[in-house]
C-alpha cells in the first residue's frame, strides 16, 4: 500500500492508531522532562534515513523481503528501497500495526527481528546499540514520520574518484550524498559497494578497497538509494618497458600506452604459423588447409599477413562464420517443422548481408523495421521469435545497444539510471506492430498499424510516448513507423551505445575479453578497462560507414592482436590489458569442422548439401542430431547473450574425445587422412609433417618428428598376437597419431 507524503489525513490516521499509546502513557503521568527529551531529538526522515539502513542491512534485497511474488514471510519491501512510499505503508500500516510499538520502541517487531531477538530467518542484520539501530529506534519513538517529500537525493559522490594503488595496498572510500535542499551528508557507512573485478580488488561493507596481486584497472560501484558513483583504481606492476612492438594503427597506440602506464611488459609478436592459424580460426572459423599454409610460407611478400587477412575477409566462409554468430544471437531457433522455411531464409539474409558487406546500421534497420512476409522479406522472421514488445526491446537493447533493460520492467535498474519510464519509452517504439495470419502455417504478415505510438507504465499507469534511453523522440505521426525513428536514433553519430556495443562485441570475439566485460553490459558503473581505445575504436567504426569488414581488418592487423600467447615473466597474471594473446577454446562448430578437416572425414546434416560445414548450420536443430555439438556447448539460440555458448571444459567432453564412436569413425573413415597416408609412397617424415601442418599450420620440431616417425613405424598385432599387415598397421598407427594431436591443447585452443 502506497502512502504519499501529501496525504495528511492518512498519515494522521496512522499516527493516531500507532502513536495513541504514547499519548495515553503521557496522560498517565510521563515525566515532562522525558517528553521534552523526545521532542528535542533531531527528526528522522523515512526516505533518507530509514530506507538506506534497511538497504544496507539487506532487508530489501531480492533474496529477502523484496523477493518477487510478495516478499518473505508476509513482509514485503520494494527492491533496494526504490519505492519508499510503498515501503512506508508496508512497515507502518500493514500487519495491524504490530511491526512498530512507539510506547516501547525496543519492543517493535522491526527491531526485534533485525537484531534476531526473536526468530528471524535472515539472522542478525543490525546490532543493538549501533548507529543504525539508534536511528530506527528514534524514528519509531518520534512517531514514524514519513519525512519531507520535498527533500530528495540529488547525487552521490565518491572520494577519491580515481587512485593509483600499489599491489597489496588498501584505500578507504568516502561516500557523500547531496540533497535537493543543499545539504550534504557522509553516507559511507550506509552505502553499498561492489567491485567489477573481485579478482583484482575487493571491497568490504565499510568501503575499504583491498588490492590483490593482479595488475590492471578495476572499478568499485558505490550505491546509495537510487544513485551511484564509481571509484576507478589503476594498479600498476611498475616494471620498466624497454621496448614494445611497433604500432601498426590506433589500436596498438591505445593498448601499448596502457601497458606503459601500468608498467606491464608485453609478450613479443607471434610467429607466422601461429598468426596464420589464429587469424583463420577467428575470421573464417576453420583451420588453414595444408595447401593454404604452404602457399603462405612460400610468399616472399613483406605484407603477407595483411594479404592473408584480405583473402580471408573476401572468402564466403567469412560470411558463413559470422552469420552463425549473428543468427545465434538473433534466436534463429527451430521449435517445430514449420520453422524450416523461415529459419533458412533468415540465415541466408544475414549471410548475404555479410557477404556483400552491407553497412551494419543498414542491416540492423532492415531487421527492426521489417514488414511483410518471410518469403518476400526474410528479416521478418525475427518477429517470429520475439512476439511481445517487451521481448523486442529487451533483445534490441542488449544486443544492439549493450544495455540490459530487463530489470527496469518492474523497478529501477539496480546498477544504472534506467527507470520504468525508460523501459516503457522503448516499448512504445514497438507498440504499433500488427500481425495477420498467412496461408503458411506458423507464419504471420508483419505490418505497421496506423496510430499513436505509446506504452503504459505497468506501475504508474501513465501512457508514455517513444523515448530512447533518456532521449525524447518527438513528432512521430500516426502514419510513421516508430521503429524507423528508433533506427535513426541508433545509427546517429552522437548515439552513445550503438557503435560502442558492436565494436566491444567484436573486440571480445578476437581478444577473448571485451574492453567492457560482459560485452553486453555497458553502463556507467561498469567502465571500460581502456576508455580511450574504446572511444577511438567506436569513432573509427562510425567514420568507416559502419563497415564490419573494415572493423575486422583493423583489429586483426594490429600488433596487439598479433602478440604471442606465451606470457613473459611479468605478464602471466594479466587478464584484461592484452599484454599477451589470451588463448580461447574453439567453438563447438569450429572444432567439429577442424576435426573433420584433419581426419579427412565429413559430418552429414539433414536437409543440407553434403559437405556443409558445422559453422554454416542455419539454426539450433542440429544440436539434437549431433552429439558432438551438444556436448561441446553449441547454444540453443534461446538468448541474445553470448554466455549461452558453453566454452568451459567438462568430463563429458574428455570422454567424447577418448572413446566416442563418432571420433573413432572419423579417424578410421575410408579415404580419410590416416587411410590415405598409410598407402602414400612418401617417407614417414613427410607424411607426419603433413599431419602437423593440417592440425597446427606448422612443421613438427625435431623431437616431435623423431617420436612420431618412430611410432608410426612400429609393427602391430591383432588380439591373438598375430602381426598385422604392414599397411593396416601403418593405418592404425596414423589414426593413433592423429587422435593424439587433435586431443592436445594446441589443437583444441586458438592461441
Question: Notable features of this structure?
Answer:
alpha+beta, four-stranded mixed sheet, Immunoglobulin-like, disordered N terminus, 5 domains, three-stranded antiparallel sheet, single chain, globular
- The chain-level mean pLDDT equals 88
Low-confidence stretches: 1-30, 34-40
Q: Roughly how many Å is the radius of gyration?
A: 32 Å
**What is the domain total for the residues?**
5
- Helix content, binned percent: 40-55%
Strand content: 5-15%
Q: Can you tell me the overall shape?
A: globular
Largest sheet: 4 strands, mixed
For the largest sheet, list the strands in their spatial order.
2-10-9-6
Q: If helices are DSSP runs of H or I spanning 4 or more residues, what is the number of helices? A: 30
What is the terminal-to-terminal distance?
58 Å
Alpha-beta content class: alpha+beta
DSSP strand count: 18
Describe this structure in words.
This protein is α+β, with helices and mostly antiparallel strands. It folds into five domains: 8-141, no CATH class; 153-235, Immunoglobulins (Immunoglobulin-like, Sandwich), CATH 2.60.40.10; 250-312 and 499-582, no CATH class; 359-491, no CATH class; 588-750, no CATH class. It contains 30 helices and 18 strands. The strands form seven sheets. The chain has a four-stranded mixed β-sheet with strand order 2-10-9-6. Strands 1-4-5 form a three-stranded antiparallel β-sheet, with no helix packed on it. Strand 4 (174-179) and strand 5 form a beta hairpin. Helix 18 (498-511) crosses helix 20. The radius of gyration is 32 Å and the shape is globular. Residues 1-30 and 34-40 have low confidence and may be disordered.
Amino acid at each position: 500500500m502506497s502512502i504519499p507524503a501529501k496525504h495528511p489525513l492518512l498519515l494522521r490516521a496512522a499516527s493516531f492508531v500507532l502513536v495513541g499509546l504514547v499519548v495515553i502513557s503521557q496522560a498517565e503521568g510521563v515525566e515532562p522532562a522525558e517528553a521534552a527529551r523526545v521532542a528535542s531529538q533531531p527528526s528522522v526522515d523515512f526516505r533518507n534515513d530509514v530506507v538506506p539502513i534497511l538497504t544496507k542491512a539487506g532487508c530489501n534485497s531480492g533474496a529477502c523481503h523484496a523477493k518477487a511474488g510478495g516478499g518473505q514471510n508476509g513482509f514485503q519491501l520494494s527492491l533496494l528501497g526504490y519505492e519508499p512510499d510503498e515501503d512506508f505503508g508496508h512497515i507502518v500500516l500493514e500487519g495491524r500495526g504490530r511491526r512498530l510499538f512507539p510506547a516501547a520502541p525496543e519492543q517493535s517487531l522491526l527491531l526485534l527481528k533485525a537484531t534476531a531477538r526473536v526468530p528471524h530467518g535472515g539472522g542478525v542484520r543490525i546490532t543493538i546499540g549501533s548507529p543504525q539501530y539508534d536511528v530506527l529506534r528514534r524514528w519509531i519513538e518520534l512517531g514514524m514520520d514519513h519525512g519531507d517529500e520535498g527533500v530528495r537525493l540529488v547525487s552521490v559522490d565518491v572520494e577519491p574518484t580515481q587512485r593509483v594503488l600499489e599491489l597489496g595496498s588498501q584505500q578507504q572510500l568516502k561516500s557523500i550524498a547531496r540533497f535537493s535542499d543543499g545539504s550534504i551528508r557522509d553516507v559511507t557507512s550506509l552505502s553499498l559497494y561492489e567491485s567489477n573485478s573481485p579478482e583484482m580488488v575487493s571491497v568490504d561493507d565499510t568501503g575499504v578497497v583491498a588490492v590483490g596481486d593482479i595488475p590492471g584497472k578495476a572499478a568499485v560501484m558505490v550505491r546509495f538509494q537510487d544513485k551511484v558513483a564509481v571509484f576507478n583504481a589503476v594498479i600498476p606492476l611498475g616494471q620498466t618497458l624497454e621496448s614494445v612492438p611497433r604500432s601498426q594503427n590506433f589500436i596498438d597506440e591505445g593498448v601499448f600506452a596502457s601497458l606503459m602506464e601500468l608498467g606491464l611488459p608485453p609478450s613479443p609478436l607471434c610467429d607466422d604459423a601461429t598468426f596464420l592459424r589464429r587469424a583463420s580460426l577467428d575470421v573464417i572459423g576453420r583451420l588453414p588447409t595444408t595447401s593454404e599454409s604452404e602457399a603462405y610460407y612460400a610468399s616472399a611478400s613483406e605484407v603477407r599477413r595483411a594479404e592473408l587477412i584480405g583473402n580471408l575477409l573476401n572468402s564466403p566462409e567469412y560470411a558463413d562464420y559470422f552469420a552463425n554468430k549473428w543468427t545465434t544471437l538473433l534466436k534463429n531457433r527451430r521449435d517445430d517443422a514449420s520453422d524450416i522455411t523461415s529459419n533458412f531464409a533468415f540465415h541466408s539474409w544475414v549471410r548475404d548481408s555479410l557477404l556483400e558487406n552491407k553497412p551494419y546500421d543498414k542491416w540492423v534497420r532492415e531487421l527492426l523495421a521489417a514488414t511483410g512476409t518471410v518469403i518476400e522479406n526474410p528479416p521478418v522472421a525475427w518477429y517470429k521469435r520475439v512476439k511481445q514488445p517487451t521481448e523486442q526491446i529487451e533483445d534490441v537493447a542488449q544486443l544492439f545497444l549493450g544495455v540490459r533493460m530487463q530489470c527496469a520492467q518492474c523497478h529501477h535498474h539496480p546498477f544504472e539510471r534506467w527507470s520504468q519510464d525508460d523501459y516503457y519509452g522503448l516499448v512504445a517504439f514497438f507498440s504499433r506492430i500488427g500481425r495477420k495470419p498467412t496461408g503458411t502455417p506458423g507464419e504471420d504478415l508483419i505490418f505497421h498499424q496506423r496510430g499513436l505510438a505509446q506504452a503504459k507504465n505497468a506501475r504508474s499507469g501513465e501512457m508514455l510516448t517513444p523515448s530512447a534511453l533518456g532521449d525524447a523522440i518527438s513528432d512521430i505521426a500516426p502514419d510513421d513507423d516508430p521503429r524507423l525513428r528508433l533506427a535513426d536514433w541508433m545509427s546517429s553519430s552522437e548515439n552513445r551505445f550503438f557503435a560502442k556495443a558492436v565494436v566491444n562485441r567484436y573486440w571480445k570475439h578476437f581478444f577473448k575479453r571485451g574492453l567492457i566485460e560482459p560485452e553486453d553490459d555497458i553502463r556507467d558503473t561498469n567502465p571500460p578497462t581502456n576508455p580511450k581505445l574504446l572511444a577511438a575504436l567506436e569513432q573509427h567504426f562510425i567514420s568507416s560507414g559502419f563497415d564490419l569488414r573494415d572493423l575486422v581488418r583493423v583489429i586483426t592487423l594490429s600488433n596487439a592482436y598479433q602478440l604471442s600467447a606465451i606470457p613473459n615473466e611479468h605478464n602471466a597474471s594479466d587478464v584484461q590489458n592484452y599484454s599477451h594473446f589470451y588463448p580461447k577454446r574453439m567453438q563447438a562448430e569450429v572444432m567439429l569442422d577442424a576435426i573433420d578437416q584433419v581426419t579427412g572425414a565429413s559430418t552429414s546434416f539433414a536437409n543440407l548439401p553434403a559437405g556443409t560445414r558445422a559453422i554454416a548450420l542455419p539454426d539450433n536443430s542440429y544440436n539434437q542430431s549431433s552429439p558432438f555439438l551438444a556436448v561441446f556447448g553449441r547454444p540453443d539460440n534461446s538468448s541474445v547473450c553470448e554466455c549461452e555458448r558453453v566454452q568451459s571444459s567438462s568430463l563429458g567432453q574428455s570422454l567424447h574425445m577418448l572413446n566416442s564412436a563418432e571420433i573413432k569413425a572419423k579417424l578410421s573413415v575410408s579415404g580419410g587422412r590416416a587411410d590415405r597416408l598409410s598407402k602414400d609412397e612418401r617417407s614417414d617424415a613427410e607424411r607426419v609433417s603433413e599431419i602437423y601442418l593440417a592440425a597446427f599450420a606448422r612443421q613438427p620440431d625435431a623431437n616431435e618428428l623423431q617420436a612420431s616417425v618412430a611410432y608410426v613405424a612400429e609393427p602391430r598385432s591383432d588380439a591373438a598376437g598375430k602381426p598385422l599387415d604392414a599397411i593396416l598397421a601403418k593405418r592404425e598407427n596414423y589414426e593413433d597419431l592423429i587422435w593424439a594431436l587433435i586431443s592436445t591443447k594446441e589443437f583444441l585452443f586458438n592461441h
